[in-house]
Amino acid sequence: MPDLWDVDHWVEEAALLPITKFYPSAITSSTSVPVQDVFHKLLTFVQEDRLFVRWQIICQSYDCVRTIAEVDDIHESVGSVVHCYFCEEEYEISTDMLCPVFGFKQHFREKIRQRAKKKHHLLHRPGQRF
Ligand SMILES: [Zn+2]
Predict the structure, then answer these.
(1) What's the gap in Å between 93 CA and the centre of ligand 1?
(2) Comparing 122 with 113, which gets the higher pLDDT?
(3) Which domain holds residue 119?
């Protein structure tokens, strides 16, 4: 049974690692939460200013499938023309060419790091009662 709380947990664990960006599919493969549910959960983190989201424009050529560019705003990009420098194809950007990628807001990452340090400190102080 997939548990959305696993997404919170994954994000907080990943914030402690030297990961700069991640795809929702990375969470799905380690938590079994469906990718659509992961995506919606991550968007709530964006609203809460813990994460940012950017959109990668993926080349639609079967042999290429490279990331052509990365943009902040999905609405600005859809309908404009993009050129793939790898395979020389040109495309009008559509929503299915855009792949969301998430990253940590710096202040959120620092908060998680501070909290991890504190936990460590509390657990290892001898004779401390809670
Ligand atoms: Zn290409």
Answers:
(1) 13
(2) 113
(3) 5-53+67-73+99-123
Structure confidence at residue 117 (pLDDT): 85
CATH of the domain at 111: 1.10.10.10
Task: Give the pLDDT confidence of 53-65 residue by residue, as tens digits.
Answer: 999 999 999 999 9
pTM: 0.84
DSSP assignment of 74-92 equals HHHHTTSEEE-TTT--EEE
User: What is the C-alpha to C-alpha distance for residues 130 and 125, in angstroms, rounded to an integer?
Assistant: 11
Structural domains in the chain (count): 1
82 CA from centroid of ligand 1 (Å): 10
Between the CA of 98 and the centroid of ligand 1 the distance, in Å, is 14
**Residue from 124, 71, 120 nearest 93 by CA:** 71
- Asked if the model's pLDDT at residue 106 lies above 90, the reply is yes
- Measured in Å, residue 95 CA sits from the centre of ligand 1 at 17
